[in-house]
Fold this sequence. Notes:
The protein is built from eleven helices and eight strands. The chain is α+β, with helices and mostly antiparallel strands. Strand 7 and strand 8 form a beta hairpin. The longest helix is centred in the middle third of the chain and has 24 residues. The termini are far apart.
Amino acid sequence: MPQNKNLTPVNLPMDLKFGEPCHTEWCNNLEALKVELVDAPTRSQALNVAWQYVKATWADHHDDTNPAIASLREQSANLEDVLCFRALPTPMECLGFTFKLSGLSFQEVTHIIRHRAGSFAAQCTGDRDLRDDPAVIPEAVQNSPEFAERYMQLTSQCKALYAEMTDSKAVSMMDARMILPKCMTSFYLMRLNLKDLLGFIRQRQDRQIQPAADNILAAYMAREVLNVLPEASVAISFDKPDMHYIKTFRVPDGKGGDTSRGTNLYWPEPKNDTFDYHPEDTIYQARREDINGTNWSGGETVFEKLWNTTMEDIDSMKSEYNAYMGR
């Protein structure tokens, strides 16, 4: 069909910013992270599903699976059995949780979508002008003035070139975006069933081989789950050793020596310090939080502040639930 200039142009769903200057809001990469629980089952729905599924196996009549015949504590205990794999785990697959994860750098995005059990919706980069998108900076870089200045300068230059190429209309946004750095942020919607969600939290809470941002996201998501479903406290623990790190740190190489089958970035955290190791077995001869920039003077890091606050919230929720259960 030919072009018809008598038609009124459509209203595009995005803002066109041709010719506008770039603007960058900077934030610490951990403080930028936000987790919002967009959709989740109610506690009563979760208790009902778990009871119906577990009791169906041996029921003589379909009415025998009605949770109304049980007390709330009995229903909670039944859901605990499901969460701890002491009963049919299928109910966990029936309970879906949708999160909005924002303040994500490209690094967090790659780790999130690598979890193939999830369903995702992404903030677009192909036909949305990115010149005003925020950027994040790690604390270690913030504590290194000689690096921080260049870090921010190069990011700004990349954004300026992106805008210049986009404004030329000779290079599309699709191609211009290739110059943008990983520190630019975006948000994602992520949906997981409860079984896969608990697995995601367990995997990403590992402070030895997972980035600090992943640890914070896992902790925030756990807090949101417990706020809706306190029974999940039996399946969420941030105190257990990171067994993958421990088991792969030193492995016999079959030649009389040892090798590593994992990611030996840092010395073991206290909860993982359960084996003999040489100080040079790791890439860095320190624990993670001790590597915090050239001008760091010590004290509580941004990660530790956010982590400790979230752990206090989680511990408080667990204590309240245990009191409810009479433990």
